[in-house]
Amino acid sequence: MQVAIHAGAAFTDEGRLLRSLQANRDILAQDGVTFFGPRRYRQVFKPAFQALNTRPPLPDEIERIRGNLPIQPEVARAIFSSEGFIGEKDAVLADGQFYPFAGKRMSVLEESFRGCQLELFLALRNPGSFIPKHLMSIPEQVREDVIRNNDLSHLSWVEMIEDVRDFAPGVQITLWCNEDIPLLWGDVVRSVGGLAADAAIKDEYDLLISLLTEEGQSQAQAILDQVSTLSQSETRDVLADILANHAQPDKMEEELDLPGWSDEIIDAFSELYEQDLTRLETMAGVKVLKP
Questions:
Q1: What is the pLDDT of residues 63-122, one digit of tens each?
Q2: Do the Cβ atoms of 134 and 92 come closer than 8 Å?
Q3: Long-range pairs for 207-211 at CB < 8 Å and ≥24 separation?
Q4: Minimal CA–CA distance to 280: which of 106, 121, 161?
Q5: Are 280 and 175 in contact (CB under 8 A)?
Q6: How far apart are CA 3 and CA 22, in angstroms?
Q7: 209 neighbors 221 (Cβ within 8 angstroms)
Q8: What pTM does this model have?
């Protein structure tokens, strides 16, 4: 059995993966793939994870988690999707890092799904936008405590991924940049679903088209209508040019309302983000999807 855990991160997915898996249910079923959303996480996984704050998981908790693997003989791969897998909202940023409990949580899953091929799938986001998005999503007093107790200037995705590698070394990790999603979405769905790299899926470029002006949508659709004559890389190159020239500004630009969060801060984090991605691409057991 293959077990795929899609864990967000926060402010990256908004239910898009589950909608895409649903749209491609037939092709997934042909490969023995089934999937579960946040309800299954809340019912089964969250109680066991909450107990980690005070003690190791009990054997019956481990068995309860394992008991939620589908037992139908035709199922070869189970996908569980919820951003809670790597941390609840109050622990997205704590102890000086992103998702400080991610490693311990994945170690519980590794133990629960022993004998299975366990994979973690995660979208990363530029900390320059991720940090203010998170801080403005929590109550003011909590926000003030987080800012006071954490050095925001040194936050990096690398530490979280290193924790997962240390606590759950058998887990294979696949990452991608949220900023690349319009061009990369098909590869994300295929990767999470365990599908072949050339598998045709529905809605592969729907998000990209939704970001375009009417003229851009017409040009993109014309390219997709002749996709059989273009390679995947050629298609993406052309679509990337169309996106650069015909994107709707209000859909591409995001206002960050955190007081004092300047363009200079965002630029500094963007540079660090690129450095983090370079490190992650060379890390054992980690794969980074790129357009």
A1: 989 998 998 999 999 999 999 999 998 889 999 999 999 999 999 999 999 999 999 999
A2: yes
A3: 207/16, 207/181, 207/182, 208/182, 208/183, 208/239, 208/243, 210/251, 211/182, 211/243, 211/247, 211/248, 211/251, 211/252
A4: 161
A5: yes
A6: 18
A7: yes
A8: 0.94
The alpha carbon of residue 281 and the mean position of all alpha carbons in its chain are separated, in whole angstroms, by 16
pLDDT tens for residues 154-213?
Answer: 899 999 999 999 999 999 999 999 999 999 999 999 999 999 998 999 989 999 999 999
| C-alpha atoms less than 13 angstroms from C-alpha of 272 in its C-beta half-sphere | 19
Domain ranges across the chain: 2-202+256-289
CATH code for the structural domain at 2-202+256-289: 3.40.50
Q: Tell me how far apart the alpha carbons of residues 141 and 10 are, in angstroms, rounded to a whole number.
A: 20
